[in-house]
Amino acid sequence: MTFHATVLTLYPEMFPGSLDLSLAGRAREAGTWSLETVQIRDFATSKHRNVDDTPAGGGAGMVMRADVLARAIDHAAPADDPRPRLLMSPRGKPLDQQRVRELAAGPGAVILCGRFEGVDQRVIEARGLEEVSVGDYVLSGGEPAALVLLDAVIRLLPGVMGNDASGEEESFEGGLLEHPQYTRPQLFEERPIPEVLLSGNHAKIAAWRRAEAERLTRERRPDLWAALNKDRQRVP
């Protein structure tokens, strides 16, 4: 099954961008996933093809119009389209690895890239848009966020990564950050590879990696560590 992504944007030339390179690019050539871009401005009906207007109640900036976006969404994803409809938004639910895996297991996604001060709330509700955030910061538009989301999803599609185990031992899998990695040379600027990794003892190596992953998570992401321990306490 091909993962089909449709991106609604005012800047279709930003796609596929980095997704046309490396693993994602080869996977698109192989038909593992496909990409369609929809120019939102094509669905504007005014003389100047306006897609935005001043915010109701006053305030700075402009807001993307509900009627224009609704026509674009209906064109890209009819009512019977099973794909989730996502709106890249800084106020959305933070994207995490679990949601990425859910999306990768599905038929694709319809992704709306917001611009200006945001999107009219009525189209979010009327078209069932799921607001998704890639971090607690503001971008100039949803396009970079959409590229991040798609990159995270595509690499988990079957056959994209040469070794499926690669995706199981990374940061956020199992609720932990990834353990440190080492390779040749064995000695770099008087810094050696930890001896346990050269021991050939797979049980000791696994235990070391787990301990290091837990240490890094405690130090760098106490929120993840707290959530992991909370889940452990729930297990009978």
TrEMBL record:
One of its GO terms (molecular function) is tRNA (guanine(37)-N1)-methyltransferase activity. It catalyses: guanosine(37) in tRNA + S-adenosyl-L-methionine = N(1)-methylguanosine(37) in tRNA + S-adenosyl-L-homocysteine + H(+). Residues 6-226 form the tRNA methyltransferase TRMD/TRM10-type domain. Keywords: Cytoplasm, Methyltransferase, S-adenosyl-L-methionine, Transferase, tRNA processing. Pfam families: tRNA_m1G_MT. It is an enzyme of class 2 (transferase). InterPro entries: Alpha/beta_knot_MTases (IPR029028), tRNA_m1G_MeTrfase_C_sf (IPR023148), tRNA_m1G_MeTrfase_TrmD (IPR002649), tRNA_m1G_MTases_N (IPR029026), tRNA_MeTrfase_TRMD/TRM10 (IPR016009). Coiled coil: none annotated. Its main location: cytoplasm. It comes from the Bacteria. The keyword S-adenosyl-L-methionine applies. GO terms for biological process: tRNA N1-guanine methylation. Its EC number is 2.1.1.228. S-adenosyl-L-methionine binds at G114, V134, G135, D136, Y137, V138, L139. Gene3D superfamilies: 3.40.1280.10, tRNA(m1g37)methyltransferase, domain 2 (1.10.1270.20). The keyword Lyase does not apply. It is found in: Cytoplasm. One of its GO terms (cellular component) is cytosol. Homodimer. Belongs to the RNA methyltransferase TrmD family. Specifically methylates guanosine-37 in various tRNAs. This is tRNA (guanine-N(1)-)-methyltransferase.
